[in-house]
Amino acid sequence: MKIADKFAVKNKTDDDAMVPLINVVFLMLVFFMVAGQIRKADPIPVIPPSSINDHKAVTDPNVLIVVGGNKQIYLNDKLVTLEAIKPALESQFKQTQDKEKFWVQIKADGLVPVEILRPIFSEIRASGLTKVSLATQLQREPK
Amino acid sequence: MPLNLSQPKRKTAISLTPLIDVVFILLLFFMLTSSFVPWRTVDAPLAVPSDKTAPLKENDLVVLTLKQNDQMVWVDGVSYSLSDTSWFKKLVIDHENSAFSVNAENGVNLQTLMNLADRLKESGAKTVSIANAFSSKDDK
Prior knowledge:
The complex is a heterodimer.
Chain A: H1 2-35, E1 37-38, E2 50-51, E3 63-67, E4 73-75, E5 78-80, H2 85-95, E6 104-108, H3 114-126, E7 132-138
Parallel strand pairs in A: 2-7, 3-6, 6-7
Antiparallel strand pairs in A: 3-4, 4-5
Chain B: H1 17-33, E1 34-35, E2 40-43, E3 61-66, E4 72-75, E5 78-81, H2 85-94, E6 99-104, H3 110-122, E7 127-129
């Protein structure tokens, strides 16, 4: 009987000590659920150029082209060659309902030289699209 | 006197450990999948081929050319430093109603290009276009 009492008391104190922990964990959980945005990871890690530009896109891009530092091109998460961009864009454009708002985002690494991007822009232009944006990240402190 | 009253009612203790396990897993999931830095976008509208027949007037357009990643910018054959804030301010004041077009030669990387566009914006330039840097010479 005495032993059982002792254990009962011990269990109670254990749970009591855990309550602040759960409080904190719940607070963090709620914070991350509310403040965070779940987003698909890029097919390859890319660090876009930092810029003071603070313009955010209103809608999600219809097509996302990722250009990595190793000059590989990913179109909507698939590794493509330069020649495959135009047909892919055209088929995407055909499937889209709201053709007015169709836009292409190019997320290129800051170290990618412009001559890698030039043929990509040419392909996009050849497929008849004009709304193209480059992804940048906000520079926290101006140099 | 009913006998059962003499026995104290024991609270059924629900263990909190499984709850915390689940909450921790949820927490980890949200921490790892959340992103707090939304990408900003710079528009680089592509000119429709028909527009090319009517370009801007020469004096309305200031063309700045980057030749290498050496933080130097070339205007009319003269090079200036990207950190030369006063020169940028003067350039923008001198060409108040002009559009600024950024050009880049092969080998210049995107970050350098954005730095130049940033300097122009900081100096008060209203229209900065980076699309020219991406247009190939052999475009029809």
